[in-house]
Structure formats: structure tokens, C-alpha cells
Design goal:
The protein is of the alpha+beta class. It has three domains: 106 residues, Aminopeptidase; 128 residues, Aminopeptidase; 102 residues, SCP2 sterol-binding domain (Nonspecific Lipid-transfer Protein, Chain A, 2-Layer Sandwich). The protein has a twelve-stranded mixed beta sheet with strand order 1-2-3-4-5-13-6-12-11-10-9-7, with helices on both faces. Strands 16-15-14-17 form a four-stranded mixed beta sheet. The protein has a two-stranded parallel sheet with strand order 8-18. Strand 11, helix 7 and strand 12 form a beta-alpha-beta unit. It is an enzyme of class 2 (transferase). This is GNAT family N-acetyltransferase.
């Protein structure tokens, strides 16, 4: 089996594999678009001895917000295998090659949307993003409050909303730090209307991207960076009450709407969504923002069966300003914490607290060391609006 990047000559076979695996047919205009944006260096394939494509995935270069910092991230997507090549280790080989490639490219984090959580957990990915889905009737909308600003429908416009998005996205771990191309190719290709809230001074403070069809309003994206923007946008949504019977929207797990409305008994569902993985623990820790405190040192026995550069004994040195380093440690010590790469990912990317991970048997160490992690790992929320 040969693992290599695809070439332009492999494009047709790659599309055929995707169409079969994901059961769709690419229209001619979409095929032309995909060809125009086809970057062979982002596609890895497993080939047999005759050069036939057996399995493939896409390794997308992204940036992601992690505890207020924007980091390089490798997004894995489009994982597909022909039926006759399944259960022959193709995807395993591709994932191992992807980890090495991401490390080489400085992508310390990886994310993916799994077809099955247990499958990717075997390779070190862990669930980090959950979301809530709401289904409301107009009677559930928040009571109207007189917002001082105004809402205007505008044409899809990255310049008008990108700063608002970045301000909101940076509050959550897991949100994409979107590129201009991502706005153009992914956000604005979705049909819908864009409404912008401005305060009394004319400054934008929020927006919604939405559709109205068959008496259902679907909110594709809601961003409000002030309470006035939230109220103003809800007033705007409420003005559709004569033409809609339901409102559908997806929100972060910490969304306060049930508390803010008179009747919180509307349909709310929690959905596990994306998985993440720390690709290079040493590089990742050097970019991560820990809580400030005294200078402290922690020995960590880290286990990673699929990325040997992460496997072994490490010393974490935490500075007073929250900056830290992780480096190989020669000494063995009983005064250390033991965890695998999934658990480290859950701790630093998934919002799981050290105490919970200890109780679950995922993190082993004495109470003093667990207490150190409780103090220095900041509390944060996770969310992801996008899909790839």
C-alpha cells in the first residue's frame, strides 16, 4: 500500500469515491467549482500496487480559536474507502500519515466530524464540541424590549460582519478563525438573508443569517456581542410572527435563552458534534493560555500510541503569566499525573475539568497535582458553528 498526495490526474477517481461513499451526485457546475479549488497537496490517498485509489481523506488548513488564541489546525474531512478495501488498514495508515503531516506543518490541533465516535477515539481524537438545537414557536420568543438601535437587511457582506464574528468566536474554544475564502465558499453560498443590528451610533453589534420557507425560520448563524444587539435581533425575529409557525436555531451549550423567556418548555436537544486532537503536545502547550499564578512545575506521563513524539514523560513548567512549556523529562517520579492524549485533549480543548477526569479514571495523580491543574487550566466554553 502506497500513501501519497493525490495529483490532478486523481481528481475524477476521488470524486467518484466521494459520490459513492457519501451517496450523492455532484452537479456539473459544482464539479467545475470543486476542480477549480482542488488542491492536491490537501488530499492524501492510499493506493494499491497497481496505483488504484483505495481510500482518501482531505487535510484542510484552518485556524481555530483556543481559549482566546488563534492556532493552526488541521481539519480532517471526506474520509472515504471503497468497500473492497475496507478493514485493510487504509484509514489507519492515512490518519497516521496525517498526524505526521500536521506536525510538520505546525498544525498543533486537529478536528473532525466523525461518522462514529468510537472509531476515531481509537486514534486519539476526543469529543470536544456539543451543541444545542432549539425549536420554538412564536409564543416562546422573548418579550419585546425596546432596543435603542436598528436592524437592516443587507446583502451578504463579509466586511460588514467578519469583525463581529471574530469577536464572538474568540470567546469559544473550537470556533474557526475564518478566512476570506471560507466566508465566500461556505457561508455566502448558503441561500438566505442577512440582517445587521447597529446601535444608536450606527456601529454594528450583531447579525443573523437566516432563511424563511414554508412558515419556518431557520437561523443559520446568530451573532450578538452586546445585550442590546440580542434584544434588537429578537425584536426583528418577532416581527416575523405572522408568517412563521416555528423557529429553528443551533446555539452553544451555555446559551441563556431558556432562562430569559417566560416559558422555557420548548424543544431543546443536545447533540455531540465535533472531535478534536492535540497533534503535537509540546508545541500546543507553548501556545496555550493557562491561568496566571505562581511558577509551578508538573511531571506528566503522557500516552499516545499513534504519535510517538507525544508519548513519554514530560515536564510542564507554568509561568506567572500563564505561559507554559512542555519538554521531555529524563527522571521517573511517582509525583506525576498520568493521562493519554485523548484526556489531555478533553482537558485543554473539551472543557472537561481535572476533577471530573480523575473521577472517571481518565487522569491519575495525587490530589495536590490534580488541584494544581484545577487552578491553572482555565474554565472555558466550546462551540463550533461551521461544518467541514
Amino acid at each position: 500500500m502506497d500513501i501519497r498526495h493525490l495529483t490532478l490526474a486523481d481528481f475524477d477517481e476521488r470524486i467518484a469515491l466521494s459520490e459513492f461513499a457519501f451517496q450523492f451526485k455532484l452537479p456539473p457546475d459544482r464539479r467545475e467549482t470543486e476542480l477549480r479549488y482542488f488542491r492536491p497537496e490537501e488530499h492524501l490517498g492510499a493506493f494499491d500496487e497497481q496505483g488504484k485509489l483505495l481510500s482518501a481523506l482531505i487535510l484542510l488548513p484552518f485556524r481555530v480559536w483556543v481559549n482566546g488564541s488563534s492556532m493552526e489546525m488541521g481539519g480532517i474531512a471526506g474520509v472515504a474507502t471503497w468497500p473492497e478495501a475496507r478493514r485493510h488498514g487504509c484509514v489507519s495508515r492515512l490518519l497516521h500519515a496525517s498526524l505526521a503531516k500536521m506536525r510538520e506543518q505546525g498544525q498543533t490541533v486537529s478536528m473532525l466530524h466523525p461518522f462514529a465516535f468510537p472509531f476515531y477515539r481509537k486514534f486519539g481524537w476526543e469529543m470536544t464540541c456539543e451543541r444545542k438545537k432549539y425549536e420554538l414557536e412564536p409564543r416562546h420568543f422573548p418579550a419585546k424590549r425596546s432596543a435603542p438601535g436598528s436592524v437592516e437587511r443587507i446583502a451578504p457582506n463579509t466586511a460588514a460582519v467578519s469583525d463581529l464574528y471574530a469577536k464572538a468566536a474568540s470567546r469559544y474554544t473550537g470556533m474557526l478563525d475564518r478566512s476570506e475564502e471560507w466566508w465566500t465558499r461556505k457561508r455566502w453560498t448558503m441561500p438566505g438573508l442577512l440582517a445587521l443590528y447597529r446601535n444608536e451610533a450606527g456601529e454594528p453589534e450583531g447579525y443573523i443569517h437566516y432563511q424563511v420557507e414554508n412558515r419556518v425560520m431557520t437561523v443559520l448563524e446568530w451573532v450578538s456581542v452586546t445585550e442590546a444587539a440580542r434584544s434588537g435581533l429578537w425584536e426583528f425575529v418577532g416581527n416575523h410572527d405572522s408568517m412563521i409557525d416555528r423557529l429553528l436555531m443551533t446555539v452553544p451549550m451555555d446559551d441563556p435563552l431558556p432562562f430569559l423567556v417566560a416559558d422555557p418548555r420548548f424543544k431543546q436537544e443536545t447533540h455531540p458534534y465535533f472531535m478534536s486532537r492535540i497533534v503535537d503536545a509540546e508545541a500546543f502547550v507553548s501556545q496555550y493560555r493557562f491561568a496566571s499564578g505562581p511558577e509551578e512545575t508538573l511531571l506528566i506521563r503522557l500516552q499516545d500510541a499513534h504519535a510517538p513524539w507525544n508519548d513519554g514523560m514530560f515536564r510542564m513548567a507554568l509561568g506567572t503569566d500563564g505561559k507554559a512549556t512542555l519538554s521531555r523529562a529524563e527522571e521517573e517520579s511517582a509525583a506525576s499525573v498520568t493521562l493519554d492524549i485523548q484526556t489531555l485533549t478533553a482537558l485543554l480543548l473539551g472543557g472537561r475539568r481535572p476533577g471530573l477526569l480523575t473521577e472517571a479514571g481518565r487522569l491519575c495523580g495525587d490530589s495536590e497535582l490534580v488541584g494544581l491543574l484545577e487552578r491553572r487550566v482555565p474554565r472555558y466554553e466550546t462551540f463550533l458553528m461551521d461544518f467541514f
